[in-house]
Design brief:
0% strand; mainly alpha; globular; 425 residues; 82% helix; 18 helices
Length: 425
């Protein structure tokens, strides 16, 4: 019970932060819709994120806390500092190399993504790809703070990031193209401020003693071995957005933007509630498993799943019933007209069904990872992803609705597989 109360306290801190971040992110999308509508510039903004985001997933950057916390828990207290710094320095070097390699391949990437206005794409892509470097470093810095059960500074990162994007988008909102340029610049500035500078302060406040030395290859190899399944596996729950972007690029102008606007609203309850619960509870789940407190672990996981099923299930139904009204109220202004509202609301109705699997997966995957069972979620998720890609590439008369239905269905399949397999020994 004491552990559960402590988790509730941490969840409250993270939830407030995620609420602020999502509100700001929501406002960011409203302004983007107002300033750019369903335009080629908006599509290019999304396409500029495809490869950088994929690299972030490929490097297991999105799972750094999941992989690092169990490893840090295994270290003796006097060795944690050196062990962590070795990983921080070694992984940073690796990702600098990946980032520079991606930048040098920018024209090939533009051709791969079927970009028509290549020069404009490169202008947007450049700040976006370098922002991912600071996201990655920030993820490592946040993992240490989560390990120390300090959530304040990590909670500030998305708030600062979104504020930066909104500010630079606003001061450049003279046209769709200039607005998108402002968003790209804001992405880079926000990643430096929120994910690097603030997090450096956070790790020092959490007790990290900064020392400079060459990375220990033994520690680096151990981390890479543990995170190997996350590196080679790309779950449908992780890259569904990239599928929306890539296959949307094969359709008419504005298709990618339509997916973007619909998906952002559907993700609100996932980001505010489900992700906050998953992030805040993971360090406690890890300690319960380490201390062989399996009954407490089961109770905590079950409570989280029931809570998400009831609350986010209700929000999903609300979204389904009011899909057109929600899109109209949120987006219909400026360059976003009634025609765009009709287009996006039809997609939003379908994507609303993804709220439940997105939410539940925040808990299910972490329950596997806390037991250091990395392979099953990523192998099954990768298999579902590959089958989804194969099916989507064969769809006759493709459309945004057909693509949305396919991706949402695959999310349910993946969630069902995890639920069948889940167990705590």
């Amino acid at each position: 019970m004491q552990n559960y109360k402590k988790v509730i306290g941490s969840i409250s801190i993270v939830t407030v932060s995620y609420l602020m971040s999502r509100v700001l992110g929501f406002y960011r999308e409203i302004m983007l819709a107002k300033w750019t509508g369903l335009s080629e510039a908006t599509d290019i903004l999304d396409l500029a994120f495809v490869i950088p985001d994929f690299l972030f997933y490929l490097s297991a950057g999105g799972y750094l806390a999941i992989t690092l916390i169990p490893l840090l828990n295994k270290q003796q207290e006097d060795k944690v500092n050196k062990y962590y710094l070795s990983l921080l320095y070694g992984l940073t070097i690796i990702f600098i190399i990946l980032t520079l390699s991606t930048y040098f391949l920018r024209y090939q990437i533009a051709n791969f993504l079927n970009v028509k206005n290549i020069e404009f794409f490169i202008e947007i892509f450049t700040p976006v790809v370098f922002s991912q470097l600071f996201f990655f470093i920030g993820a490592i810095l946040m993992a240490f703070q989560y390990f120390k059960e300090n959530f304040l500074y990590p909670s500030l990162a998305p708030v600062i990031y979104n504020c930066s994007i909104i500010f630079f988008g606003w001061i450049n909102s003279t046209s769709p193209e200039e607005t998108v340029k402002g968003f790209a610049i804001g992405t880079l500035v926000g990643s430096i401020l929120g994910h690097l500078i603030i997090q450096l302060i956070g790790v020092i406040k959490s007790g990290l003693i900064i020392q400079y030395f060459l990375p220990n290859l033994k520690y680096l190899k151990e981390y890479l071995f543990i995170s190997l399944p996350l590196i080679v596996g790309q779950s449908i729950a992780v890259i569904d957005e990239q599928l929306f972007r890539y296959f949307g690029s094969l359709l008419d102008t504005g298709s990618i933007a339509s997916f973007r606007y619909a998906r952002r609203i559907a993700l609100l309850p996932v980001g505010i509630i489900a992700q906050a619960i998953g992030v805040a509870s993971y360090p406690f789940l890890s300690k319960l498993f380490k201390n062989n407190k399996y009954d407490e672990l089961k109770i905590l996981v079950r409570k989280q799943l029931v809570y998400l099923l009831v609350l986010n299930g209700a929000l999903m139904v609300f979204g389904l019933v009011n899909s057109e009204s929600i899109i109209k109220i949120v987006y219909q202004r400026g360059n976003f007209t009634a025609i765009e509202t009709n287009t996006v609301s039809s997609i939003f109705f379908i994507i609303c069904f993804a709220i439940l699997p997105w939410s539940i997966n925040q808990i299910l995957t972490r329950t596997f990872y806390v037991q250091e069972e990395f392979w099953f979620p990523v192998v099954s998720g990768t298999l579902v992803t590959l089958l989804t890609i194969l099916y989507m590439s064969q769809i006759k008369n493709p459309s945004t609705l057909k693509f949305a239905l396919t991706i949402v269905f695959s999310l349910y399949v993946y969630t069902f597989i995890l639920l069948l397999k889940l167990g705590i020994d």
